[in-house]
Amino acid sequence: MRIDLLRHGTTGRDGHLDGRTDPPLSESGWDQFRRQTQSRIWRSVVSSPLARARAAAEDYARQTGCALNIDADWSELDFGRWDGRSRCDIAAEFGGEGLLDVFHADPTVRAPGGESWVDLRARVTRATDRILAKSEPAPVLVMTHGGAMRAALSHLLGWSLRQLWSLRICPGTRITLEAGQGDDGVAWGEIVEIIQP
Asked: Could you list the residue range(s) of the whole structural domain that residue 154 is in?
């Protein structure tokens, strides 16, 4: 099955931990989305419920008439009390820089009042497996977020979450995968294409 993971376009808030904080796409973000979807056909679109991903997914579905499914498991990581704040502001607090370092180094550590990367991978694994369980092999577009894309790659490719920080996933990045499930039910995937905005 062909799956395209597409990170929503830019919101103009680089450097902020916008997990559940939900700023709208900027005009540049809409341009990134249009370039990544131009002349491409998907029979179904799955989207995070967060508006910065959902608005573009709804626009594509409306224009093409394809099926649209909103799935909360594709939401970005919940950064808890850090959500919506800039990394610089958090790092400037007493002990903040060390906490951020530990959070990014150890995928089991939760953001204060939020999720860990392991938590995110667990729900994205559920979401990915639901897509793979569908009988039709039609290409699927998943409109989501950078963290959720890393979690899906970890699940499908067997890469550790720590390794995935070496892969640049800027706003507007599209990663095309061929993916499926073996006879044993274990998911597999291979990267076909990575298109940066």
From this structure: 2-78+116-195
